[in-house]
């Protein structure tokens, strides 16, 4: 009797679907993974929805409604290993910008009947409500990193995901530092690698798509931003992007908020 394949499920919350599309974009690599597991629940790619329990659960998107809270807790119960993928699931996403504003005021201005809107006052990462076994950063995620994390989960080992800064990637590819050479504000020194340092390669500063690196030092970077002529408001906005509510970025942006 053939061995039973591990069951993998993919779930979506408040997000743009970009990280799920990154999984589909893995193409031939995905075929190899599909041969080793049973894709039991993946609405983006299949109409077949098998019930849990699941060996691995991949979750995209932030928690933004009371129903989301109930649902993620049920998903956690059904998954042996739970992996969050992307900035929304790991840090609240770009929608976490609402965390500094009055959400009730937003709904009043946007919706004709705001009393029908049921939402939380903050957009939060999955880890705020349930235990997460591994957080894979990125907006969107790196597809090869995702395959590495899935492979590690299947083989019960620690994922080999680099935690150093984008600056290291710039040096490896021979990209001249845009901050040193051209005075362009860049989050590269405090951002985790994963994108291949795309923006600096095109003379643009890093936007922090992969969130804070391991042991970042945002205050030191902010000091450099002042030297480049940026004011407190500029620096606050610099940290309020795709990973605005990641702890290191959140604290630094709030330190410069007027």
Estimated radius of gyration: 20 Å
Gross geometry: globular
The CATH homologous superfamily of the largest domain corresponds to NADH:ubiquinone oxidoreductase-like, 20kDa subunit
Distance between the termini: 66 Å
Give me the CATH architecture of the largest domain, please: 3-Layer(aba) Sandwich
- What is the total number of structural domains? 2
Average pLDDT over all residues: 93
Low-pLDDT windows of residues: none
Spatially, the strands of the biggest sheet line up as 2-1-3-4-5
Query: CATH top level of the largest domain?
Result: Alpha Beta
Q: How many strands appear in the DSSP assignment?
A: 5
Order of helices and strands: EHHEEHEHHEHHHHHHH
Work out the helicity level: 25-40%
Major sheet description: 5 strands, parallel
Number of helices: 12
Strand content: 5-15%
Query: Class by helix and strand content?
Result: alpha/beta
**What is the CATH third-level topology name of the largest domain?**
Rossmann fold
């Amino acid at each position: 009797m053939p061995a039973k394949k591990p069951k993998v499920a993919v779930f979506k919350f408040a997000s743009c679907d970009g990280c799920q599309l990154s999984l589909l974009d893995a193409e031939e690599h995905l075929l190899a993974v599909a041969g080793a597991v049973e894709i039991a629940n993946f609405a983006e790619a299949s109409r077949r929805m098998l019930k849990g329990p699941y060996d691995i659960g991949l979750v995209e998107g932030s928690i933004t409604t009371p129903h989301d809270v109930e649902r993620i807790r049920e998903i956690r119960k059904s998954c042996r290993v739970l992996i969050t993928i992307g900035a929304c699931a790991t840090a609240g996403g770009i929608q976490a910008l609402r965390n500094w504003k009055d959400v009730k005021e937003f709904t009043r201005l946007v919706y004709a009947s705001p009393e029908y809107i049921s939402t939380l006052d903050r957009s939060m990462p999955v880890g705020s409500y349930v235990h997460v076994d591994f957080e894979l950063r990125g907006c969107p995620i790196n597809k090869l990193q995702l395959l590495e994390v899935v492979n590690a989960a299947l083989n019960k080992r620690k994922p080999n995901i680099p935690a150093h800064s984008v600056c290291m990637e710039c040096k490896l590819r021979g990209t001249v530092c845009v901050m040193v050479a051209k005075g362009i504000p860049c989050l590269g020194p405090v951002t985790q690698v994963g994108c291949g340092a795309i923006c600096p390669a095109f003379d643009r500063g890093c936007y922090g798509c992969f969130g804070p690196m391991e042991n970042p030092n945002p205050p030191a970077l902010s000091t450099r931003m002042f030297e480049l002529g940026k004011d407190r408001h500029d620096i606050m906005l610099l940290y309020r992007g795709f990973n605005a509510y990641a702890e290191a970025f959140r604290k630094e942006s709030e330190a410069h908020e007027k």
